[in-house]
Sequence to fold (165 residues):
Amino acid sequence: MTEKRFQAYQKSDKDKRTKVMLEQLNKCETFDEQCSLFLGWANCQESADDDDWIVMVATRLMQSGKYNPMLFNVWLDWRSLTQGMLGASRDSEIPNQMYNQMRKKCYLTCLKRIEAYPQDMLAMNCAAVLAGRTNILRIGHFMFGNDGIIEMHELMPKRFEGMEE
Fold:
């Protein structure tokens, strides 16, 4: 849906990429296009220096109250990147209450969609995934830190392509 916009970002000079992406997001005609472009941006090697901006854009997308079937992915990317900025160790702050407040906002957006379109299976799935996701665990699957880092690797594998394990 947004391949040309994403390519403009990837082809731009490294020090201008963030500005190019923000311009491309602004040029999107629909919320669906913005979400599509956002998810591509979050999941690419070139965006490693853009985390602050990615988190801010995700926040705006989720607070808009607009629905997209991938809203849960926007929330998950936002949560894992935010946690990455706060720290990956078991001693790092894990503000699950903040994450859950944003989850609630997204969940209510899905419920409004379901109310308007009762047969929308994608909206039902989005709401179910949001409701069923666990909090980030301090002592979970990642033996060297909290599970936010594992979540980031699972959600955005293209960011880490070519890196040694």
Observations:
- The chain is about 60% helix and 0% strand.
- The chain has a mean pLDDT of 91.
- Residues 30 and 36 are 10 Å apart (CA to CA).
